[in-house]
Amino acid sequence: MSYAYHLSLRCGARTKHNNGNPCRSPAVRGKQRCRMHGGAKGSGGQPENKNALKHGLTTTIIKNFRKSVREIIKECQRPASNLS
């Protein structure tokens, strides 16, 4: 007696915890990967890498703004005798 699970194609992804051996889970129908390794519908990254745009704390504009604020703070901390 053979079941569809035993006859299905296997996922081709390499695993970290199994010494780099192939994953033993069955691949999703019409795909080459199992549901855990990217075969599920809607899996994978968003187009144009929108995942990288989360908070904006490291954009060039913000970095330049922080730098200018630091320079203003340093300017304000100098003794008044050096300003003339």
What would a concise description of this structure say?
By secondary structure, this protein is an all-alpha fold. Helices cover 26% and strands 0% of the residues.
Order of helices and strands: HH
Q: What proportion strand?
A: under 5%
Query: Which residues sit in consecutive blocks of at least 5 with pLDDT less than 50?
Result: none
Number of helices, counting only DSSP H or I runs of 4 residues or more: 2
The average pLDDT value, as a whole number, equals: 79
| Number of self-contained structural domains | 1
Per DSSP E runs of 2 or more residues, the count of β-strands stands at: 0
Shape verdict: rod-shaped
Radius of gyration: 27 Å
Q: Which percent bin holds the helix content?
A: 25-40%
Backbone structural class: mainly alpha
Largest sheet: none
| Terminal CA distance | 95 Å
